[in-house]
Amino acid sequence: MTRIPEFHAAKWNEPVVMEMGRPGARGQLFPAPEDEVTQAVGSDLIPGAMARKDRAALPEITEFEAQRHYLHLSQMTLGMMGISLFGTCTMKYNSKTAEYATLRPELAAVHPYQHPDTLQGVLEIIHEFDRILCSLSGMDQFIFQAGGGADAAYTMAAVARAYWDDRGLLDQRTEMVTSVQAHPCNPATAAAAGFKVVNLPLEENGYPSLEALKAAVSDRTALIMINNPDDMGIYNPEIKEWVRVAKEAGALCFYDHANFNGVMGKLSARELGFDACMFMLHKTFGAPKAGGGPAVGAYGCSDELAPYLPCPVVVKEGDRYRLDEDRPKSAGKVREYWGNVPQVVKAYAWARAMGAEGIQLASDISVVANNYMDRKLAEIPGLEISNPGIDAYRMEMTRWSLGPLTEETGVTTVDFANRMADYGIDPYWMSHEPWIVAEPFTPEAGELWSKEDIDTWIGVIAQIAEEARSDPEMVKTAPHNQAIAQVKGDAFEDPGKWAMTWRAYQRKILGDESARGVA
Amino acid sequence: MRIGLVVNPFAGMGGAVGLKGTDGPDTVAEARRRGAVAKAGPRAHQALARLAGRVPGARLILPEGPLGADWAGGLDLTLETVASGAATGTARDTKDAVRAMMPLDLLVFAGGDGTARDVASVAEGTALLGIPCGVKMHSGVFAVTPQSAGSMIASLLEDPDRVRWIDDAEIMDIDEAALRRGLLAPRLYGHARIPVSRNLMQAAKGGPRLDAAQSLSSAAAEVVAGMEPETIYIIGPGTSAASVVRALGQQATPLGVDAVIDRKLVARDCDAATLDALSEDRRVALVLGVTGQQGFLLGRGNQQIGAGLIRKAGKDGLIILATEDKLTALAKPHLLVDSGDPDLDRALEGFVRVSTGANRQMLMRIASC
């Protein structure tokens, strides 16, 4: 018997932190510097042009009050520790051990402009992790400059542009071929880099046909960018032939490993013929994501493309490591410095803790868990799997549709997601392409969640499907057990209402016109 | 929201008894003689049952009798009826009933292409939603099933913000008499605004999408930029293809075919003979749109463009514009051609590029039907 959680979120009527506290309250009291220190460094350590004219407008609050406030906020937002089968994001546990490693002064207290001789430990980790990713992909060199998956896809587009420019063919090789179901950053970044985007439609098998690819590629094709499996969870078994066809037309081939979890250690992008690939360390490799911290798109390529990589590249010479900035064919930087290095360290810690066998086992578990979940979801009336007629196993996630239930009851996938929060379950991911499958949702069971967790998640889905029939109005007006009621999404698309800073909040929400500045 | 419903009780009767449609009283009589049973009313009832289940007490305006209220019996709905007038058994009954219900925010009709034409002719500017009942349904205004039509009405009443509107759904009809002689001659009669149920709202990672008009106008600008001298560009009909004429700063013929040479509009609303004459000794490019839901490229609503012209243009001479939304919403992922020449249709099979926006194309498979 599946246990359906009974839940009610805490509700704290606290103001925002900027409105809390009292004059003079402090989180930390720093002693005045000793005379000897002042004499040694002088009193004008900070140049006048950089020194702040006014006092920083920080809340005056004690450390304890600040901690309590943020604890309350996490209680009102499900705390990012619930059951979250948030597809396409590959939710993983972000271990405290890895977090601790990044707090060590050898990492936390260094700066990328230090002399490399003083950064050997950090550079060694970057190099070692590069080797791990090369063994998982077959590529020859990885860099970690990109600040996320889309940034890594952009790196590919920039590298391809430099590659074709170097051969004098950039005016001819103007097209990038991808699929309508590919990671959306593929067409977006190729377009940003100046390529024309040629999209392939999904056909009867649930992925684009080889015939479509053959018709699309030509001597105008600069590169193809695809992920496999895509977000429907279906693996394209013709992928090797795809690469062969694209290569025959002279195109570069990029494997977007956004959905790597189901094939970790099972295939090698290079063995399949790809020239380059990318991994998202904040997904597959256990580093935190979204509100948890900055991201990393690890971009790897073959020796043939390596001269075009953004600088610097960490290289090992003998027992020493250095930053190679002297790469005349480089596509240029996609981001400052060498990337979000603490995330690289966390991903390295994850990979070392898992080991090669552990990574393969995690991949197996994620596929088994997903297919278990699919069988269970199929038993719930009103739910429909995407591409229902296809005789193929799904990999680590599956796109589902609430279309039949919505037609019957009027309860949409957005209503469903809102209602999930009433059970203390994080709302699911719907779809990057909500126009392809009606009323979509995309769960990803992953290797983290226990069978009991997955059963609970499915039990909540079944419960809400039942509620959609017995009391649709209640589901449509959810959430009811949360700190705040339903939020209309209109403001998300209205820059006049965005308030990412206190000043923007004062101006846009409180109507204080004197609060000008960066929004 | 004022929602009206009209039922063409004769719609669809011809199909099961081997007639190609039910246009006109003589055909209805023949269909009855062959044992046809009226099915539009029961299908309207199915749609209304879904609506009453979702929104008990929903308010509807409809004609008395078999054109409306007869099919709403026993359902928890609030009905406002209008007088039907004397039944003539012709399209006049439908039109009179619609006039009596106007003004409406949405007109739901149970019928086929002929009914769509009839109601659109007297409810211009009113949004339409078809409960599929006809023998011919080439128009893009029909729901997939009667139940989904009922769901759509319910969604509109429950939360109109969740419904998206498309302004240019095609209203097409085929000359039934010609069809019975084996000739398929569908014509484009106009466009109507329709509600679409698919949920396009996506919070968090998904941002707002480029709207259809922007996508088409940027695709059209690229087509114009790539126009070659001395080539005749035969454009239309339909709003997608017309965007190319607009990109030239000209007004397109909404339901007809225009011709452009050297970026100048040289003829409007052309018939087949005019197009043939203009195309003599020139290279031919066909600028085409795609019909909603069914995905027709040639042979539905653009019969002015004959097999000879298509052959002359060849597959490389096809310039196709459509939004990605329209292409991904097609019932099947391919474009259909029906030039009247099966050999030519087969020659056109395979993949073709469709311009979907600035620097953006989608590959689509052409199939003959």
Structure overview:
The complex is a heterodimer of chains A (519) and B (369). Chain A has helices at residues 35-41, 63-75, 96-103, 105-108, 120-137, 149-166, 185-192, 210-216, 239-248, 341-377, 403-409, 413-420, 451-470, 472-476, 502-509; strands spanning 141-146, 175-179, 196-200, 221-226, 252-256, 276-280, 297-301, 313-317, 320-324, 384-385, 400-401, 440-441. With 519 residues, chain A is of the alpha/beta class. Chain A has a seven-stranded mixed sheet, with helices on both faces. In chain A, a hairpin with a 2-residue loop joins β8 and β9 (320-324). The mean pLDDT of chain A is 93. By secondary structure, chain B is an alpha/beta fold. Chain B has helices at 25-33, 40-54, 91-101, 113-122, 146-158, 176-180, 212-225, 239-247, 272-279, 307-313, 324-328, 342-348; strands spanning 3-7, 58-63, 77-82, 106-111, 127-132, 164-174, 186-196, 231-235, 258-261, 264-267, 283-288, 296-298, 318-321, 334-337, 350-357, 360-368. Chain B has a nine-stranded mixed sheet with strand order 10-9-8-11-13-15-16-14-12, with helices on both faces. A three-stranded parallel sheet of chain B has the order 1-4-5, sandwiched between helices. In chain B, strands 2-3 form a two-stranded parallel sheet. In chain B, α7 (212-225) crosses α8. The model of chain B is unreliable at 199-208 (pLDDT under 50). The interface between A and B is large, with 41 and 40 residues.
Query: Which strand order do you get reading across the main beta sheet of chain A?
Result: 1-7-6-5-4-2-3
Distance between the termini of chain B: 40 Å
Number of strands of chain B: 16
Q: Biggest β-sheet of chain B: count, sense, barrel? A: 9 strands, mixed
User: Which two chains have the most extensive interface, and how many residues on each?
Assistant: A-B, 41 and 40 residues
What is the helix content of chain A?
A: 25-40%
Number of beta-strand segments of chain A:
12
Fraction of residues in β-strands of chain A? 5-15%
Mean pLDDT score of chain A: 93
Rg for CA atoms of chain B: 21 Å
**What count of helical segments of chain B does DSSP give?**
12
Secondary structural class of chain A: alpha/beta
Principal-axis shape of chain A? globular
Q: Could you tell me the strand content of chain B as a percent range?
A: 25-35%
Q: What percent of the residues of chain B sit in helical stretches (DSSP H or I)?
A: 25-40%
